[in-house]
């Protein structure tokens, strides 16, 4: 079955550690996105990529980094520079290369807790 | 600034009808999305409106009024599985998605 897979589902991190969240899709989608979801707030865009080897900062990119070496993979690294990393992270993809046109397909999410 | 407003929480009874409202203020407008998100799960696409009017899709319908900056999601014949958060998101002139905080819908038997 085609879909988008995030791992791990739950992750605990000590302060000062970098962590990488995995996002893989087998939908052959060009565009991929990382969002952060916090209680009482709308989704906020961290990074997006419309094509392999290219990505753009979203609204809250500080303290995060990404890579897009393969079409199907878009990992997110939460660095120690991110001051408030505890959140629910959602990866999404779209079959439209134009940003945000078209339906977004989301992964199940990764819940990061900083201890 | 750009803003999406939707109620934080709503309660309805199984078998009934509920309307979830969303108002938006954006720099330009290229359409409005509704997504459903069950607790701890991925959001799933429900609808997309760019023209005024009502779009019906089974038990769910979505309405848009561009002149009023207003949309609603109408859910009929409510089932317990409809208990979820409903996210409204507007696409601005730069194709940036502005998301609302979501409406948590509680269905009671």
Structure overview:
The complex is a heterodimer of chains A (115) and B (109). Chain A has no helices and 11 strands. With 115 residues, chain A is mainly beta. Chain A is globular and about 35 Å long. Chain B has 109 residues and is an all-beta fold. Chain B is built from no helices and 11 strands. Chain B has strands spanning 3-5, 9-13, 18-25, 32-37, 44-49, 53-57, 60-65, 70-75, 84-91, 97-99, 103-108. In chain B, strands 2, 4, 5, 9, 10 and 11 form a 6-stranded mixed β-sheet that branches. The relative contact order of chain B is 0.36. The mean pLDDT of chain B is 95.
* Most residues in contact, chain pair and counts: A-B, 19 and 23 residues
Summarize the biggest pleated sheet of chain A: 7 strands, mixed
Number of strands of chain B: 11
For the sheet with most strands of chain B, the description reads:
6 strands, mixed
Short description:
By secondary structure, chain A is an all-beta fold. Chain A has strands at residues 4-7, 10-13, 19-25, 31-37, 44-51, 54-57, 64-66, 76-78, 87-94, 105-106, 110-114. Chain A starts with a strand and ends with a strand.
